[in-house]
Amino acid sequence: MKNxxxxxxxxxxxxxxxxxREKKEPHYREVALLSGFVTERGKVVPKERSGLCAKHQRKVxxxxxxxxxxxxxxxxxxx
Length: 79
Hints:
By secondary structure, this protein is mostly helical. Helix content is 38%, strand content 0%. The chain starts with 17 loop residues before the first helix and ends in a 10-residue tail after the last helix.
């Protein structure tokens, strides 16, 4: 008999990392790829919204920072 006080378990659809699926590593020169992980305000999109795994989220963040310092990506959007 089920306990009436416990909530039913809700399963979340598992999203797979797009970079793992394509077997691709982010690079600071790929501005088109990196700009997809930045909001219009210039913030890095969190892992929950981007759908990346933890390993690729860390790499994307690092490559975005490198591209910003080289002037390939803007720190903030144009005013």
